[in-house]
Amino acid sequence: EKTMSTNKTGFHLIVVQHGMWGSKSDTTAIAEQLYCEVPDSIVLNITSNQFLSTYHGIDNCGKRLAEEVLEYLDKSDPNKFSKISLIGYSAGGLVCRYAVALLDGKGVFNRLIPDHFITLATPHMGVRHSANDTMGKIWNKTTNVSNFFGGRSAHQMALLDYSITEKKTSLPLLVEMSFPESPYITALKKFRHILFYANANNDRIVHYCSAGIAAFNPYKNETPPPIDPKYPHIIAEQRIDKEFAEQNTQQTPRRASSSTSSMGTAARVLGFVALSPLLITHAALVAAPLRIASMVSDPGEVPKTERPESNRLNQQTFSNR
Predict the structure, then answer these.
(1) Rounded distance, CA 194 to CA 202, Å?
(2) Is the confidence at residue 97, as pLDDT, over 50?
(3) How many CB atoms lie within 10 A of CB 153?
(4) Farthest-apart Cα atoms in the chain, separation
C-alpha cells in the first residue's frame, strides 16, 4: 500500500464494487489499473458482498458496502484521505447508489470531497424490457421468477418489490431511489463527476436504456464509428443536465453532443456509450484531477502498466480488500 501522498491534501480513496454473483476478483483488473494510473490513490476493492451474499438485496449490500468503507476510514489516519470516489459494475452500481446515502448521512462527504461516481452497465431502471416485442414479453415473464436466480436483489432489479394494500402502498426500491428529494439523489448530486457507461448493443440483461437512463436507444439499428481511434469501443460521449434531460423525451439526441435522460436534478452528469462485450469488467479506467479519460477494452486487450517495485500492492491491503 502507498504510505505517503505526493500532495499536501491526502490520498484519493477509490471504492470498487463488483456485481451479482461476483467477487473481488471480478474487479481486480479495474482496481489495479486505477491504483497504477490515478495519482495518490488507494483502492478499496469491496469484499463484504461476495458470491451468494449478492442475493441479499441492493439495500443490504449497500449497507455492508457503507460499513466496510466506514470501518476502513476509522482504522486510517483521520487526515490520510481528502477525496472519495465510487465505481460500481452492473448491480454494484445500484449498491453504490444506495451506499452513498448512508455515507453522506454519516458525514463522510463533509470530511472527504465526493469526486467521481461511476457505474458500468448498471440497471438504473431495472432489468425489465419493453413489452412491445415478443422477446421483451418473454424476458419480463422470466423476471417474475427472479427470486430463484438472484434472490432479493434480482427481485428488486425486476421492480417486483412493491406491495399494495388498503393501508399502505410501497414502491419498488429503484423507484424510491430515483426521487430528486430522496437521500440517494441528494448524496449523488454532491459528486464532482457522475459517469454512466452503457452498452449500445449485445447486453441482453442490462439494456442501453436502463444503463444510460434513456427513453430510447438511438444506436439500436445503426452503430456509429468510435469518436476516438484510441478508444475503439467508445462510440458516443454525452453530457447530461436537467435541460437536456427534459428535451430527451421529445428529440433524438445528436451524436456526441446531446443527451440521454438523467436523474432529473443530478446536474453535471457525463455519460459514455460503450460498444463493448458484456464482460466490461476488463475495462481500463483512468481518472485524474480536472480531466477524465476512459476506455473499454475487449478481453485480452487491456493495456498493462508496469509498476515500480515500490508501488507493488500489499497483499493484505489490496487482495483482501
Answers:
(1) 24
(2) yes
(3) 29
(4) 65
